[in-house]
Amino acid sequence: QVHMVESGGGLVQAGGSLRLSCAASGRTFSMYAIGWFRQAPGKEREFVIGISRSGDSTSYADSVKGRFTISRDNAKNTVYLQMNSLKPEDTALYYCAAAFTNSARRVPGKVAEYDYWGQGTQVTVSS
User: Fold this and answer.
1) 46-51 and 78-83 strand pairing
2) Assuming Cys at both sites, which of 20, 49, 92, 118 could form a disulfide with 4, CB separation 3.0 to 4.6 Å?
3) Whether residue 47 has pLDDT greater than 90
4) Distance of alpha carbon 9 from alpha carbon 119, whole angstroms
5) CA 58, 30, 96: angle at the middle one, nearest 5?
6) What pLDDT score does 26 carry?
7) Beta bridge partners of 122
8) CB of 35 within 8 A of CB of 100?
9) Pairing label, strands 4-7, 58-60
């Protein structure tokens, strides 16, 4: 069992930055790839960015390449999402999720591949 808690969301102007954190419980955190998803009102939940359990492989949605980065600290059971050059279309509820993977470098990209989810943190970008 892995319990996920997101933090760091808020209101920011377009062009600004935010850093989200995802803290996880459980001694097996290093066995899970971690992904960030987002869901805007009326839209489906979508994959944003993810990092392998080893930390040396990442995957990005095209919409965030060059603006968002992800990192993890397995000693602290925490994953960070740095969001720069934010746009109004980045406004959404952001979720972190954990996916058990046999491969140390695999980053799942689908909602159904993730086993545990946090409650989400709201990010609002004003124009």
Assistant:
1) unpaired
2) 118
3) yes
4) 12
5) 60
6) 80
7) 93
8) no
9) unpaired
* Mean per-residue pLDDT, 43-47: 98
Sign of CA dihedral 107, 84, 15, 119: positive
Q: Region of 102 please: left (phi>0), alpha (psi -120 to 50) or beta.
A: alpha
Residue that the structure tokens 């124009």 belong to? 127
Distances (CA, A) of 7 to 58, 80, 83: 21, 10, 13
CA–CA distance, 74 with 54 (Å, rounded to integer) = 9
Residue type, 55: G
Distance CA 37, CA 48 (A): 5
Give Cα separations from 31 to 37, 60, 61, 105 (angstroms).
Answer: 19, 20, 23, 11
Q: What is the pLDDT of residue 27?
A: 73
Contact 53, 32 (CB under 8 A): yes
Length of the chain: 127
pLDDT in tens, 82-114: 999 999 999 999 999 999 999 999 999 999 999
Tokens 């492989």 belong to 57
pLDDT reported for residue 48: 98
